[in-house]
Amino acid sequence: MKEHDSDLMALADGELDERAAREVEERIARDQTSRRKLEGVGEISELVRGHLELTSDAVPRKKFDALWREIDKSLDRETEPVKTRAPGFLRRVGRWFDHHRSHIITGAVSAGAVAALALVLRNPSDGAIATKHGPLDTTPVVHRPTEIESLDTPGGTGTVFNLEDEDGSTTVIWVTPEDSVEGI
Amino acid sequence: MSLRFWLATSIVLALAQPAFAGDADCNYIEIAATKSDKAAMDPELKPLEKKLKKAPFSAWNTFKKLSAGTVSLTKNKQESIRLKHGSASLMLRDRTEKRVELTITKDDEKGKRVLEAKPALKVADYLIVGGPGGSDDAGHMLALTCK
Known about the structure:
A: 184 residues
């Protein structure tokens, strides 16, 4: 290919600037061979363009549709907001304990203090009695009948006794007047 | 108040020993005991029937309810009970979950004090205060139980 031919091809493709195109056109006007070459280049270009268009039309429409669907999906994935899964029950409980750890510790310490106080202030008669020689084990009384802390029977005599049965204990205070001939 | 305060308070309260308002309700029954040819027990004395059939009450065979009622006691406040024969008074001195500490007085029909006692009564147990009543061979009792 001569240098002149490349100018013809560039002209046919519209790749020359205005001044170069004018020079090549003037040369073609004077040279019949060059004019025929330009016409041949134009025909070849038409043929190639037509072939490409036919090839693209030969691609099945289904393939295009599938291609567009893929493109749409990928676009949707990019624009879709990120969905986060709701945490499970145990996870929520764990989080709650994490957030309230100081509260729980405070409550547990308070409870321990109360328990310690209850142990310290407990009535010794409930369990062991402290002595010089160490604690003395005692056996708790299963049933304590009514206790009479004081009894005053002016002008008479008081007698206290217990009646036991399956319903429990009954304490009796019997008052016998002094002028009575016979008591119970 | 912070959540921490309320959490600690609720735990302390939950662990605290049961507290009592310091009140007690006492049921009383005034009973007349006599001996007759035909034994009779007032149906309202059913809770005391087993006890009244034991000695020394077995000396009588007829038991009649004269009066009954419930007295609500507040600590250190004396409550009077008007009986068919005489009167009585109750005062709550102290109480725990299982025991009720009382001061009991009993006056005869003439208003003469015949008894003043300070029992520590187990809850639901009975205390019977009695003595001769009316005729020589009759008995007069005041049965008491508290909760």
